[in-house]
Amino acid sequence: MKKKLLFLFSLLGMLSANAQDPVAAVQDTLGPWTTKGNATLLFNQSTFSNWVAGGENNIAASIGVNYDFNYKKGEWSWDNKVIASYGIVKTKTTPFAKKTDDRLELNSVLGKKASERWYYSAFLNFKTQFTKGYVYGKDDFGAEIRDEYTNFLSPGYLLVGPGMMYKRDDNFRINLSPATSKFTFVDSNMTLPDEAYFGVKEGKSMRYELGFNASMYYKLDVIANVTFENILNLYSNYLEDPQNVDLDYQLNVVMRINRYLTTNLSFQTIYDDNAYQGFQVRQVFGVGANYGF
């Protein structure tokens, strides 16, 4: 876990080391590459002493990177986005620090112009987590226990496929890929009978699917200093239960107070019946330090 945390902080450090003023990045038209992004640090701590209304001492922190590096020259465009975040919370009465956020995601779309706003495209989407995830419970004496359930690349998801992309500008695009290969990677030692572990057969380390993928990216400035970023992915597996459409929707809201302080809201909902029979929901909200680059 320490090595993976060190990797995340190193990634944050390398991106910050190459940082530049965000206005300058927009104005730089000398080369085909455009880079922009932000790094955030959220921190929360609560302490109670003889507080009759009740409360539990706790400390929580999270870090995140949202970074774009895009290429455009002639008939070609290549849009790339990296999203990485990690958060933990520790309360006085629990023996374990628990995760509040843990994800690593890469989105990449290569396009060659077919008409004014349509492109022939090839896309890649990769998702996993940094550290172990646990299922928590109680032992016979009422003490809290935990069992490992997930880890780095268990699961890991890779989607690749050709298609067509509608691109209005860097802030709005829709990609349709009717022949998308989806790979689900897991630790074979964690698999369960009846494909109960992320749809992977017991003793295997990978599941393959072929289906239709639709993805959308839409970023808009609602009012001054308030940005909404929407990322939507839909996937239907031709080979099994095509009516069960996988959904992954992310909303990232940044409300800028000044250059270094922002209020951040991150909301994500996932439906994937191979992972969980229902909607998974994650929401993180806080005021923290922000650095744009």
UniProtKB/TrEMBL annotation:
Keywords: Signal. Residues 1-19 form the signal peptide. InterPro entries: DUF3078. Pfam families: DUF3078. This is DUF3078 domain-containing protein. It comes from Flavobacterium cerinum. The lineage of its organism: Bacteria, Pseudomonadati, Bacteroidota, Flavobacteriia, Flavobacteriales.
